[in-house]
Amino acid sequence: MTELVVLSGKGGTGKTSVTASLAALAEAPVLADCDVDASNLPLVLAPRIQHHGTFSSGLRARIQSSRCSVCGQCEELCRFNAISYYESANDDEAGAFRVDPIACEGCGVCAHFCPEGALEMIPSDGGEWFLSETRLGPLVHARLRPGQGNSGKLAALVREKARETARANGRELVLIDGPPGIGCPVIASMTGATNVLVVTEPTVAGKYDLERILALIRHFNLPVSVCINKYDLNSAMVAQIERYTAELGATTVGRIPYDPAVTAAQRRGISVVELNQGQAAPAIVELWKTLSEKCLNLTPGHYQPISAG
Ligand code: SF4
Ligand code: SF4
Question: 212 with 275, same domain?
Fold first, then answer.
C-alpha cells in the first residue's frame, strides 16, 4: 500500500488545496485529514459521516461529592491549580471542591492521596473521529476538543483508521493531508508512511519552514518530493529552494503558478482541478503525473486528468 503524506512545515502554503486536487486525480484513494486541530479537507469534500467514534486523550480527575469531606487536601496537592473551592449559592448549603477538566493534567496525585477515596480518574472526552463518504473516496477526519492535548495521538488514530479502510476496501493509495508545523501531530501523521510531498512557497519564511520540515523528514528516512506553490512570485527564491532540495536528495516534482482560480474553487467547495480553470489545474495534473509515475511507482493508469468543464 502506498501512503503519501502531504506536509508544509507551516499553514497557508496551499497544502490542503493541493491534497484535494490530488484526491480528485488519484484512482480510488482513501483520504485522511490528520490536522485534527483544524481540519480543512472536509470543507472541500462535503463529507457524509458514516461512522464516528470518541477519542480519549487521557484521564481526568472527578470528585464524587457524596464521599467528599471537603478537607481541601486535593486543592493543596494539585500542582496544576485544577481544583478549587466554590461557595454554594444557597446559604444553607456547604460549598464544594470541583475539578477544572481543562486544567487537569490527569497526573492522579489527588486521587492517590484523597483520604475519603472521593476522587476517581475517568477517561477525558478529547474529541471525535469520523469515517465519511465523499465524492472523491472515503475520508477519515477528526475533531479535537478545544483545550485538549494529545493531538498526535488523535492524528495517529486517524492515520490508522485510514489504513484499515484501505485494507478493508482493497485500495492501494492512502492520501493524507498532514498538519502544519513540525510538532507531534506531524510526526504521528508521518509514522509508517511510504512517501512525503512537501508543499512550499517561494518566500523567506517558506524556505525556512521547508528546511525545518525536511530536517524532520530526514529522521524518518522517507522519500520526499517538493512542490513549489505560487512559484511565479519570486524566481530567485525558487532557484534557491530547488538547489537546496536537490542537495538534500529530494525531488522537485512540480511548480504551481499563482492562480485566482484556487480561491474561486475554495469558495465553491471543490478542488481546483475539478473547477479546471486557470493555470494551476494543469500544473497540478502534471505534478500528479510526475509524482505518481516517478516517485510513488503507481502505474500510469492511477491518474485521471479531469476533463475541461
Ligand atoms: S481530598 Fe478528597 S475528601 Fe478532601 S476535598 Fe479533595 S476530594 Fe474531598
Ligand atoms: S489528576 Fe493531577 S492535575 Fe488533575 S486535578 Fe488531580 S492532582 Fe490536579
Answer: yes
